[in-house]
Amino acid sequence: MADTNSIPVADQDHAWLGGELFFAADDGTGDVEVWKTDGTAAGTIRVADIRTGESGSFPKSFVALHERVFFTAYDDETGRELWSTDAKVIGS
User: Fold this and answer.
1) Of 54, 51, 87, 56, nearest to 69 (Cα)?
2) How many other C-beta atoms lie within 10 A of the C-beta of residue 14?
3) Which residues contact 49 (CB under 8 A, 6 or more apart)?
4) Which one, of 45, 50, 44, lies nearest residue 60 by Cα?
5) pLDDT of residue 29
6) Residue 40 to residue 2: CA distance in whole angstroms
7) Which own/partner contact pairs does 47-56 have at CB distance under 8 Å and 24+ positions apart?
8) How many Å apart are CA 63 and CA 80, to the nearest integer?
9) Is the pLDDT of residue 34 over 70?
10) pLDDT tens for each residue of 1-26
């Protein structure tokens, strides 16, 4: 797994879908967003940049259901809302 400056695992939630782990992580700039990993450095990537800029959307409450991962995330327009991704297309 790649080093993402992630929040300690004990302090966050996550979801498994299709052999990948979805979780919240900071890329080192304070921008906490949704990431996924298949357990390799090359397979550890940010899924979406929901709240662009340096603030981050601080996703949480991850649940995998019917080929999607659902979570809540914050953006400046609507506040904290329910989001989902199939993670097949980055940003979906």
Assistant:
1) 87
2) 18
3) 31, 33, 91
4) 50
5) 81
6) 7
7) 47/22, 47/85, 47/87, 47/90, 47/91, 48/85, 48/90, 48/91, 48/92, 49/91, 50/74, 50/75, 50/83, 51/75, 51/76, 54/29, 54/30, 55/30, 55/31, 56/26, 56/30, 56/31, 56/32
8) 16
9) yes
10) 455 555 554 456 899 999 999 999 98
Would you kindly state where each structural domain of the chain is located, as residue ranges? 9-85
Q: Six-digit token pair at 56?
A: 């981050």
Torsion over CA: 35, 36, 40, 42 (sign): negative
Cβ 48 vs Cβ 56: under 8 Å: no
Token pair in block for residue 32: 């906490």
Summarize pLDDT for 36-85 with one digit per residue, the tens.
999 999 999 999 899 988 789 999 999 999 999 999 999 999 999 999 99
d(CA 86, CA 79): 22
